[in-house]
Amino acid sequence: MQLFSGFENYNWQNVTITTGMFDGVHRGHQELIKFVTDQAHAHNEKSVLVTFQPHPRYVINPDDPFKLLSTYNERVELMARTGLDGMVVIPFTQSVANISSEQFIVDLLVEKAGISHYVFGYDHKFGKNREGSVEKVKALGKHYNFEVLPFDAVHKDSHPVSSSRIREAIATGDMPCANDMLGYTYGITGNVVKGVQIGRTLGFPTANIEPEDMHKMIPAMGVYAVRVEVEGRVFKGMLNIGIRPTVNSNAEFPTIEVHLIDFDGDLYGKEIHVKFIRKIREEMKFDGLQGLREQLQHDKASVLKVL
Q1: What is the per-residue pLDDT across 190-242, written as a single tens digit (0 to 9) for each?
Q2: 243 contacts 254 by C-beta, under 8 angstroms
């Protein structure tokens, strides 16, 4: 897949295009992109995604607490696996936010992108105030000589697969549900930073993770069975997201710490990739460190059973 920063070095014509953020690149997105690539091949055209960076919600409302399912780098990597020929990333600014849907189509898709076919998702809205709809796009297609190909929703359990449903699952710690809708295992990437090292005294040394992107969604507080990749090696792990009430009752913000099973080494300063498999329990407060140590032994057994 060829990655373009805007249309400066782009000179393709007669392409099959889709547009949108595609946060998470979930099963619904994957099926839509497959439809794009299939249509492009059928018409002997290039397949192209036109998207934005950063997410429009951060520009339109900077105080929005909205969290992402995929960072920019993750989105590019996931899209590169789909078979797309090209991905055009338009820097999203306030001026872009003020562009009408018609201006977006004429100035960008017709004049710069070389659109021939437009795959339009079932719930896609775009342009200023999100006034662009499939009916409007079809009318513009007739005028500017491109064909609109609507794409219906992909369903799971009688409901459309959507980024919002996946966020709801992650927010409650239901990782099997989230992973099923995503079509892959949800994860976070971050750097290992110094912690208070209580886990080491309990026989369960942990790596404290500082996520690489503050906008990336973190699952609900609790203890999880995870798989952890460090420097190309994958380990089983037990991960806690929370305020550590037994040893740090005054904490205001959750921390993310993971114990790598059967790992012996120094992780400080290293990049770490965590994949969330299943939540095994809620975070709990114990009377003392001995109670916590005993629970960690139970957690390890539960994690190994899950993994």
Answers
A1: 999 987 666 566 668 899 999 999 999 999 999 999 999 999 999 999 999 99
A2: yes
Each residue's pLDDT tens digit, 185-196: 999 999 999 876
Residue written as token pair 């036109």: 50
How many whole angstroms separate alpha carbon 105 and alpha carbon 74?
A: 27
- According to DSSP, residue 226 is labeled E
CATH 2.102.10.10 holds for 185-306:
no
Entry pTM: 0.90
Q: What is the CATH number of domain 2-160?
A: 3.40.50.620
Q: Of 1, 19, 46, 50, give the one whose Cα is nearest residue 119.
A: 19
> Residue 261 in contact with residue 236, Cβ under 8 Å?
yes
3-state secondary structure of 249: coil
Domain boundaries, the chain: 2-160, 185-306
Would you say 211 and 279 are in contact if contact means Cβ atoms under 8 Å apart?
no
Place of tokens 């001026």: 95
